[in-house]
Structures are given as structure tokens and as C-alpha cells.
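Support request from a user on the community tier.

User writes: "When I paste my C-alpha cells into the form, the page sometimes reloads and wipes my input. The last time it worked, I copied everything first. Here is what I submitted, just in case something in the input itself triggers the reload:"
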């Protein structure tokens, strides 16, 4: 695969939007780098008695609209460029759905599959000890991301409260329900993406009946989206994970595929499906393609084979700028990540609100608020797409960047 610098991609997207918005020079310059970037070493005592040192990061990109907000990922390929890019995208994401938060991101270079649960807990708590001075409910609020989950968020919140000696559940979102988590948070990223997918299908004049869907990446978000779409009447014909693709032109059973993956660690050799190469998903004919894995999945190396009508970016930054231009020239509508997967941060915000008041909402209340935010944000982005006669990505970015820039100017930063 081509070497792609995620932060360079993020800044090229910003540059393109600025060519239309013409932001004040000093505002634009401030948006070209994180406000703060923290790099930490985390010593962890392993089960065999040795001590291993892990490298971690926290990028705080912009807090003009509210406290920094963004997930923490555990992955062997975490790097400075990726974390900075993700913090920039989080800034636009909170702005496009108009919630009063900024953008941040964190990560640790680690393969969590190589750690025991006790080692994982010590690593999570060690990370919080390393960054606790720069986070807090009114400073920077982390959340789950790749290879992190409610259990890990619970450990992190507990460690922060032990250090500070205060009960502050709002310091972390995506927690278990028993310690201040929100209903619907577990599948909110996928549910939000389904709302905008439905809006796109409607705006494009497509008939839902008979539409086929491919999902690249079958982890938490991808599997939830597959299940929700199948219940809504969409036919998912192909899914892939880090090992292979599985295909059935008559439609895959999402519950069965997920159960098989949980039991075996892979979607491969699932009953009722044909195993294919991992990259088959990009050449397979589907009406809707959902990249739901990591960054830079769709590049100039594989974009030629993609002929879907609609792409919904459930992952962060799954399409390189060069490949994105090719898709636009093909007439393929792309719902960008900052809009498509903003359901997660929207419900994280709801969790913060509930933590602040100590009053918790039922699932229907959460979903109604989420649906209103997602559909409204899609319509506003689509309107700007038409105004500028450009892509939906550009429309969403223009909406988000303008909101951030306006907040910076109103604070006197410009």
C-alpha cells in the first residue's frame, strides 16, 4: 500500500475549503496545527514481572467551540501524523453537528491482542496518570476508539477520580451504563450513519428496495451498521475484515456473520458465505459501500474498481484526497467521515450532559435527539454542496470550518 501521511491529507482538505471561505490569514494559520500535542512514555509491569514502556499521545487540536473531545485508540500503527489528523477531523466533526465541543484525539502504540486483561488495565490506567493534568470535564474529554471499549473507559475514569479525589464521571464518555454511560452509546456511531445514509438515498432519488451494501471493516461500528441496515431492509452482500472478504449475492445474515467473527476472530469461513480476498470488497458491485475500518483504505491503487452509487465513511479518513477526486469525477456521492460517523460524538455529548445533571435519559429520548441532529446536519451540508456546486465532503467541511473560525474570531483570536 502507498505510504500516506494522514495529517497532510487533513491539511490539504482544509486548504481546499479555505480557497472558498477565504478565512482571515491568522485564523487559517492557527488551524494548520494542534494547539497542544502531548507525547508520553507509559511504563507497565507485565505479568512476567518485566517492565515494558509504551508510547502514547494526546493531540488537542482546537477548543474554540468547547472542551477538546476525541477518542483513544490502542493500535500498533498509531503515530503522530494519525493522531494529529484525527484530532483535526474531530474538530470539524463536533462543529458540523453543532455541539459545543472542540476536537482532540489520543492513542497508544500497542497491539492489545498481545496483552492480558490485567496488562491492558495497567496500560489504560498508566495512560491516564500520564495525561491527567491536561484532561477533565471542562478541558478535554476522551472516549473509546479503535480497540478500546466501555470497560477500558471505566478503568480510565476510575483512575482519574482516584488521582483527583473527586467524583467526575463526565471526564470520559463511552462508559458502562452502571457508572454513568448513556443509553445507545454502544451503537450510536452506526445509528447516526444510518440516518445520514437514509437522507442521502432520499436526496439521490434511489429506491431502498433492492439496494446492495458492502461493509469494509466488521468491528463494532461496521457490525452494528450491518445489523441496523439489514433490519431496515437493505441487502448486505459483502463484508470484510483484516483477514478476508465474505460474499453472498443473495445477502449475508449479519447476526450470523458477527457471531462467527466473535467466536473465531475472523469473518472467514462463515456458513452461507463465500470467502474472497480482503480487497474483493472494492471490486465487488454494490450500490452502497461503507468503509468502516482504518484510514487510507481507498487509494489510487484500488479506486478504479469502485463503482458504487453512494459511499458512507463510517471510518475516519478512509479515502485519500486523490482517490476522493476520482470518486467525485465518477459521480459517486461520498458522505464524509466528519458527518457520517458523528453519531458517536453526538451521543458522547449527550452522556456529558447527563453526567453534569445526574439525570439520565431513556433510549428513545437519546435516539430522537440523535436523529434530529444527524438529519439536520446532513441537510445543511447538502445545501452548501449545492450552493458551491461541489462535493458533499466540501459542503460539510465548509459548514464545520466556518463555525470553528467564527468562534475563534468571536473569542478575539483573529
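"...and here is what came back when it finally went through:"
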Amino acid at each position: 500500500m502507498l505510504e500516506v501521511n494522514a495529517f497532510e491529507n487533513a491539511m490539504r482538505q482544509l486548504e481546499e475549503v479555505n480557497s472558498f471561505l477565504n478565512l482571515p490569514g491568522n485564523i487559517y494559520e492557527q488551524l494548520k496545527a494542534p494547539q497542544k500535542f502531548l507525547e508520553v512514555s507509559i511504563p507497565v509491569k507485565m505479568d512476567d514481572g518485566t517492565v515494558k514502556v509504551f508510547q502514547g499521545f494526546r493531540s488537542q487540536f482546537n477548543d474554540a467551540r468547547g472542551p477538546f473531545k476525541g477518542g483513544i485508540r490502542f493500535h500498533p500503527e498509531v503515530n503522530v501524523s494519525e493522531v494529529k489528523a484525527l484530532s483535526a477531523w474531530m474538530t470539524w466533526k463536533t462543529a458540523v453537528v453543532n455541539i459545543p465541543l472542540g476536537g482532540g484525539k489520543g492513542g497508544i502504540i500497542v497491539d492489545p491482542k498481545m496483552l492480558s486483561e490485567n496488562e491492558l488495565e495497567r496500560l489504560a490506567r498508566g495512560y491516564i496518570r500520564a495525561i491527567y493534568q491536561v484532561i477533565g470535564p471542562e478541558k478535554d474529554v476522551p472516549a473509546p476508539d479503535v480497540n478500546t471499549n466501555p470497560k477500558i473507559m471505566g478503568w480510565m475514569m476510575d483512575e482519574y477520580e482516584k488521582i483527583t479525589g473527586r467524583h467526575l464521571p463526565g471526564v470520559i464518555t463511552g462508559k458502562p451504563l452502571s457508572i454513568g454511560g448513556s443509553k445507545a452509546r454502544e451503537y450510536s456511531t452506526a445509528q447516526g450513519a444510518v440516518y445520514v445514509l437514509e437522507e442521502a438515498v432520499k436526496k439521490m432519488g434511489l429506491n431502498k428496495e433492492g439496494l446492495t451494501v458492502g461493509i469494509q471493516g466488521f468491528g463494532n461500528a461496521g457490525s452494528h451498521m450491518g445489523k441496523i441496515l439489514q433490519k431496515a431492509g437493505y441487502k448486505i452482500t459483502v463484508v470484510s475484515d483484516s483477514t478476508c472478504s465474505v460474499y453472498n449475492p443473495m445477502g449475508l445474515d449479519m447476526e450470523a456473520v458477527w457471531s462467527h467473527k466473535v467466536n473465531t476472530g475472523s469473518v472467514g469461513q462463515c456458513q452461507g458465505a463465500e470467502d474472497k480476498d480482503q480487497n474483493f470488497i472494492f471490486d465487488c458491485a454494490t450500490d452502497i459501500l461503507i468503509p468502516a475500518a482504518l484510514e487510507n483504505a481507498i487509494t489510487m491503487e484500488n479506486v478504479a474498481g469502485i463503482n458504487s452509487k453512494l459511499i458512507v465513511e463510517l471510518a475516519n479518513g478512509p479515502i485519500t484526497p486523490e482517490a476522493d477526486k476520482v470518486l467525485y469525477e465518477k459521480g459517486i456521492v461520498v458522505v464524509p467521515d466528519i458527518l457520517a460517523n458523528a453519531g458517536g460524538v453526538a451521543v458522547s455529548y449527550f452522556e456529558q450532559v447527563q453526567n453534569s445533571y445526574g439525570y439520565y435519559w431513556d433510549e428513545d429520548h437519546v435516539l430522537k435527539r440523535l436523529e434530529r441532529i444527524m438529519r439536520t446536519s446532513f441537510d445543511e451540508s447538502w445545501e452548501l454542496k449545492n450552493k458551491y456546486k461541489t462535493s458533499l465532503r466540501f459542503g460539510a467541511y465548509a459548514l464545520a470550518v466556518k463555525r470553528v473560525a467564527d468562534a475563534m474570531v468571536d473569542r478575539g483570536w483573529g
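Agent notes: The reload is a front-end session timeout and is unrelated to the input. The CA atoms of residues 195 and 375 lie 6 Å apart. The first helix runs from residue 6 to 21. Escalated to web team.
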